[in-house]
Amino acid sequence: MSKDSQGRRRILKRGKINVVAQLCDLPSTTHDYNSFTVDVDHSSANLRSFVVEGVFKETESKSDRPPIIAFSRCFITVTQGAGMNIINDMLTITNASRDQNQKAFKHPAPTPSSSPVPEASPPAPFTQAGPFTYTAEQQQMIQQFAAQSGMNHEWSIKCLEQNGWNYEKSGEIFLELQKQNKISPDAFAK
Prior knowledge:
Helix content is 31%, strand content 29%. By secondary structure, it is of the alpha+beta class. The protein has a four-stranded antiparallel sheet with strand order 1-2-3-4, with no helix packed on it. A two-stranded antiparallel ribbon has the order 5-6. β1 (29-43) and β2 (47-58) form a beta hairpin. The longest helix has 14 residues, at 136-149. It starts with a helix and ends in an 11-residue tail after the last helix.
């Protein structure tokens, strides 16, 4: 896939298959948001895999009672900057089960909230560091420092904490101590 946005746009709109035109040719649908479920089957600092399932019906159907259709959409994403990039997206469409048919479109969809959305997500616990809670930024620093230094999370956290969460300073001190062979082998035990 082309890295520049113009190249991607050309591929999507004028490639061998006009992806945008193909998507526009799909029939209009109405989804039952109450049927949606999300199952996260893997989540790490760099990779997330999750499945979204639910039901929908075509809105321009010639039938008085269009069939309820089930879908399952699997996403695999990688971390990119502050967000994520979808590297794989697989959509499966099937006939709805009897249970899905009976429950579909029975309750009104939830209305969007007018409450303000926080600018930053709340701090989440870092699972490998015991009872302490780290911000999302600190968690990312821990993951990145561990990956770059080769140290385990416990020692990466120690190094970052001892240097006031200053990533550059922590890196400089790590390199200096490593050069002097003053880092315990325990720091690299996974």
